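Hi,

Apologies if this is the wrong queue. I'm a grad student, and the batch job for Ion channel from Thermasporomyces composti produced an output file that my downstream script rejects. I'm not sure whether the problem is my script or the file. Here is the sequence I used:
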Amino acid sequence: MSTGGENAPVSPRGGSTGAHGRNAQRQRVVAFSWLLGGLLVTYALVITTGERLLGSFARTVALALVLLAALRIRRLSRGRTGAIAVVSAAAVVVAALATAFARGTVLTVLTASTTLALVTVTSSLVIRYLMVRRARVDLATVLGVLCIYLLIAMLFSSLHEIGGALVAPYLGGTSAPPSPGDCLYYSVITITTVGIGDIGPVSNLARMVTVLEAVVGQLYLVSVVAAVVSGWRPGVHRGAA
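Support response: The file is valid. Your script probably expects a header line. Output copied below for reference.
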């Protein structure tokens, strides 16, 4: 009798915990879906409006919203949440001031720097979730890995923007300096090793950044992405960690 009495409450608690875990998993999938969608929208903005004056500001606003969306991935302390909100707001303010008062090299460097900051902070949130919080592979993990891949390409795109603004000539087959759309396009074909050939590195700095991106992209694909995809079993649900 005593044994049965001790075991009786376990099932309701376990059921409640299981339901809570499934609900939390769904929330993480939704959060990563918004994050992935926001990054794709940002890509479209850079490609279509990158050469326009307001295009740089629109990109910063989009990435700031992506960073805020990344806060939904996991709970953070109030201090960290506040700090990330400050980073997002500061990036938007810097981009707004740069759009209003800066031109040429200064505008490019400031805009690319805000992109670097936002991409780095967003990546750190996703990586922390993937490396620390997850003991298994689920849909949220797969979406997170894909988000990191897009963030890596955007990070190197910003480095190419800065390099193109400071070094001339930097890339061949583009205007001087290369537009944000050209830099993102070149970054994507580099990290995916497509090698179309219409745009290529001219300066030593461009070659160095290109080689680094190609190596990072390939290592990421053959290690992280391959491991995650091979371990993913769609439709198999386990208790949340």
